[in-house]
From TrEMBL:
<dbReference type="Pfam" id="PF06101">
    <property type="entry name" value="Vps62"/>
</dbReference>
<dbReference type="InterPro" id="IPR009291">
    <property type="entry name" value="Vps62"/>
</dbReference>
<protein>
    <recommendedName>
        <fullName>Vacuolar protein sorting-associated protein 62</fullName>
    </recommendedName>
</protein>
<keyword id="KW-0732">Signal</keyword>
<feature type="signal peptide">
    <location>
        <begin position="1"/>
        <end position="17"/>
    </location>
</feature>
Amino acid sequence: MFNLLFSVVTFVTAVSAVPTTRKKRQAPAGVPQFVLDYAPLVWLHSAEQYFPSDIAAQVSNSIPQVNFAAVPNVPNPLDLNNLDSLSKDVYLTSKDDITKNPTWIKGVKPDASGKTNNAVTAAVIVNDKGGGNVDAFYMYFYAYNWGGTVLGLQQLQFGNHVGDWEHNMIRFSNSKPQHIWYSQHSNGQAFKYDVVHKNGLRPIAFSSNGSHANYAISGTHDHTIPNFNLPGGVLEDYTNEGTLWDPLKSAYFYSFSAGENKFTPYDSSGATPVNYLYFKGRWGDQEYPTSDKRQVKLFGQAKYSSGPTGPSDKQLNRSKVCPDNGKDCILRTILVPKGLDELNELEADIV
């Protein structure tokens, strides 16, 4: 027990020691101040090779394809301002062989201030629902997702894919944060804001090595069972305090009207692209067939899976803190992994 308490104190002290200069950020006029004040900071893993990536660069390094065939009559050049002209069947397919690890998929490592220089790597989307209720989505983009290994075996790798959109969502009531969502693979975790680690007002998210799933604590996280975050198992994510990233320093900012399904940039100069948010296709390659020498499939799991959908597919007008995916929405009140034997303690927090 003493060792556990010592570790917790050490962790909190380390997080609190993050230089306050990293809180500095810029945003256009109109973005609610509380959305900025409580914006998450992200710890990237110390072994991370695929850093946050420029959203526009993903498009310029891709060829739109459907069923592995090039799409005709594509705007030239294709960019964030006309990406919505493509159908929902389209995959933004890498021009390069991903197994060759082209430079652009490695993204941009944040500098000492937490900024990804010369790369816009995040999008902040604010859904004001009225009555003092606001959901703020902090969207993080990576050019590549490395799925990791199974049981630590390098020959068993699943879930690699081009393109990776992750996010935190904070639910506010009268400008005060109530809950925060951490996206993780096909699901994620929700916590009461008061219990998560913070730097000042800003909550901390830990991005897992390669997969970029977001967690509220550092360490080892088994995601075999969605929503449980066990401390070890078959499919493990790893998080630690490697490189600190401040997504606000290189982000686009938008308001979202659910009734109109409309995104409006807070920057009124016309410099902020918006139409890419309406693109319904995939931000990466289609899952390679087994006839492709790069592909390995075992027990129905593919080494290279399809790229993800974008921000508009993240349930921006969700009723619960968690997206509606058929799973219970557990609002956690403590920061430890949840085992099956602890489920009864959570029943009062299931909404």
